[in-house]
Amino acid sequence: MRSRSIYFGNTEVVIATTSPGAHYATIDVDSTKAISRAKLLKKVETNKFIAIITPDIEHTFSLLSKEFKVVRAAGGMVENAQGEMLFIELRSRWDLPKGHIEMGESSRDAAVREVEEETGIRGNIIGDCPITTTWHAYDTYGEWELKSTEWWHIRATSGELTAQAEEGITKARWFGAEERSEALKTTYPTIIRVIETLYRKEE
User: 72-202: what fold?
Assistant: First the structure.
């Protein structure tokens, strides 16, 4: 694996052997020692791009993840027969449907379930593997969580658009290519990464 990325809101933290670019603030670490969560959060306060430089990416990631409560989630990048993509509006930003994986549930099944619960749309998974996995760190009532989300490509089969208001979702909408470009201007970096990864695979 060439690098790992963890998102703290709009800030990207990359764990890599070399810096991805001059605009990244760097933290050099010995792979045998963990970088503290407190030190990293201090860096996040003033930088949008951070690179943790280490000779052992996976070991450094493993040590850092121990400072968080790790949770698993799954989500869907859903397309209909017209090639439109399904988005939800959450906290005034466009997002993709996703949620926590329940006990005994597979990632695939969780993605399909969450899409239906949050948007009213039923669908089938395309392919045998997720598009990608994203990592997102956030503070939940004083406890820092590190959420891994496996994203699946889903083809819509039936259902009527219904935003799940009790989850804070205000809209569920299909976007064509031109509208999608506008939506991506107000979405999260993780969502852009999911969509770009899928399209690269299909090229």
Answer: Nucleoside Triphosphate Pyrophosphohydrolase (3.90.79)
